[in-house]
Amino acid sequence: MRFRTHRSRGRGASSLLGGRGGSLKMRLLIGGGLALVALFSYWTASDVNPITGESQRISMEEVEEVRLGLASAPQMASEFGGVSSNAQGQRLLEEIGRRLVAAIPEVYPQAGEIPWEFSFTLLEDDQTVNAFALPGGPTFITDALFDRLETEDELAGVMGHEIVHVIQRHGAERMHKQNLLQGLAGAAVAGTGEYTAAEVVSFVGNFKMMSYGRDQETQCDLEGLKLMAAAGYDPYGMVRVMEVLAGASGGASGPEWASSHPSPEGRIETIKREIQRLGLGDRAGVR
Question: What residue range is the signal peptide (predicted)?
Fold first, then answer.
């Protein structure tokens, strides 16, 4: 009986190992297939930017960006205290925003019709120094940042930067890349049966996205300078904005490589070099 039981267990163990081997192969095949689908979806999706004329990896049409931005705007505004009670500040913000949008064709002469619906909203939050733009055009700045700005040129620097985020369709690009990372993370789980693999993919992906974000921020700084100058604002207002951000951070920001934004100090030097390179310094005081 003991001998028979031992042999039975041996056959059972052998069968079990064979099952595990087959199961592993199947998981790897499924995981590999899902990874290929995610990569194929990412690399085959492209759209031509109607303003810059550049081809971008985006799976969302402009009308979808507008719809998403309009749907998200009320919730985003509520998270920062809602619309500011500063009616005069709101009017100034809208005036500068419209002026910058009107200058888009001068900076991008190849631009077609602007498909996005720009709006500019001052938010009640007087603690959070922030400005941001949603896909499709809704653009915001908090009272905390607005109150730190001293000139219209500085406000134009903030808004010019945010408008370029919309023009360059950065939100749609980031969402498309996030879909890729989520697809690869799902493939890792399916292929290994372990969530640790997905965590590694997500960790690496997050750092890749941080770097991608820093590139976007630099692009918006430099393109925003052109937009400011075309609208008649002093590009050096952007330098002052960075000084304000540096002061607001109080030196408490983490290392640049672990941040979604370049350091304000580094941005100042980059902006000054670009102003000189483009010969925009002589635009100071044109208004």
Answer: none
